[in-house]
Design goal:
With 331 residues, the chain is of the alpha/beta class. The chain has a single domain, classed as Alpha-Beta Complex (Spore Coat Polysaccharide Biosynthesis Protein SpsA, Chain A). Helices cover 32% and strands 21% of the residues. The strands form two sheets. Strands 1, 2, 3, 4, 5, 6, 8, 9, 11 and 12 form a ten-stranded mixed sheet that branches. A two-stranded parallel sheet has the order 7-10. Helix 6 runs parallel beside helix 7, helix 7 packs across helix 8 and helix 8 packs antiparallel against helix 9.
Length: 331
């Protein structure tokens, strides 16, 4: 089964990139941008420079803005073109541990079975007061007692999210008010059943082929909202087809690239404002009788109607879907 790892970077090969490049049985794709050093290269890495991106024959390459995280989507498309069965989404500051791997997608796992709505999944992995970026702020003081909702069940996982030690994915409010490092405890994988919502990101995540279309990264929302919005749109669509979201132990250590926390906070404001509304809008705009592609399109149409995204975003969604259709036709 082919598995591609996709990273975007504007730095010389980082410790994370070097370690990922040495892993057997994976193809590592690194997507460059205009800020990436012109002489970027590393052994066992399929590096896609800006000039090479223009030759990929992906329509998305012509319309995506430069110096933008969403150019990572060209790496996803390249992995699909390669015939990948799984795509691993990570960043150049997430260093894989020696035990870095993901569980099987179909097996018996601890499953949160009660229809909880949004939950703080971190509470199952640490006693530290910490929450994932994208959790509604009104819930950050809630003790969810999720262990009481867990049953061991056969699960059909569509996306696994691995946690990150040291500097995990938290919001700017956490970093501005506390910023304590976090080292998660080890436990068995946890799967969210339908109706259990958790933010997930692009840091240490594996997606199975059937859900590749849901990897679309919103391009015209703020940087700190883009991957969270992707995950919120994805979850109700996954449920329609019987797929679940799962979480595993911290298998990477994040040595976070420099950030301005106040700029992060400002970038996160739309996330704080809209995360619950997004779930409602997407859930009400999709149908099991439609294809996954149509449901993705209709979900973003609903977000456009409510002013959460703009018209330019819809053009990007359309282009993304056209490129995927073209890739699938050639197979």
């Amino acid at each position: 089964m082919k598995t591609d790892i996709v990273i975007t970077s504007i730095f010389n090969p980082t410790e994370a990139v070097i370690k990922f490049s040495k892993l057997n049985d994976y193809r590592l794709i690194v997507v460059g941008d205009k800020k990436t050093p012109e002489d970027w290269s590393y052994e066992n890495v399929d590096y896609i420079s800006v000039s090479q991106q223009d030759k990929l024959n992906f329509k998305l390459a012509k319309v995506l803005p430069y110096n933008h995280y969403c150019r990572k989507m060209l790496g996803y498309l390249k992995a699909m073109q390669n015939g990948a069965n799984y795509i691993i989404d990570t960043d150049d500051d997430n260093i894989p541990k020696t035990n870095w791997s993901f569980p099987d997608f179909e097996a018996q796992y601890d499953c949160i079975t009660r229809d909880e709505g949004f939950v703080n999944i971190y509470q199952l992995f640490t006693k530290q007061k910490i929450w994932p970026r994208g959790l509604p702020l009104k819930l950050i003081n809630t003790q969810f007692e999720l262990e009481k909702s867990i049953e061991v069940k056969k699960c059909n996982v569509g996306i696994w999210q691995g946690l990150a030690d040291e500097d995990p994915d938290v919001d700017a409010i956490y970093r501005l008010t506390n910023d304590e490092p976090c080292y998660f405890e080890e436990r068995e994988p946890v799967v969210c059943s339908q109706g259990v919502i958790s933010p997930f990101n692009t840091q240490n995540t594996i997606i199975r082929k059937e859900l590749f279309v849901l990897m679309y990264l919103p391009t015209y929302v703020t940087f700190r909202f883009t991957d969270i919005l992707r995950g919120l749109v994805a979850q109700p669509i996954m449920w329609l087809y019987g797929y679940q979201l799962g979480f595993i132990n911290a298998t990477v250590v994040q040595k976070r690239n420099p950030h301005d926390y106040m700029k992060d906070f400002i970038s996160e404001i739309p996330m704080y404002e809209y995360c619950e509304k997004v779930m409602e809008l997407v859930s009400n705009s999709i149908s099991k009788s439609e294809s996954i592609e149509t449901n993705l399109y209709n979900a973003y149409k609903a977000l456009l109607k409510e002013g959460i995204i703009c018209e330019l975003e819809m053009k990007m969604v359309e282009t993304w879907l056209q490129d995927i259709k073209s890739i699938n036709k050639k197979k």
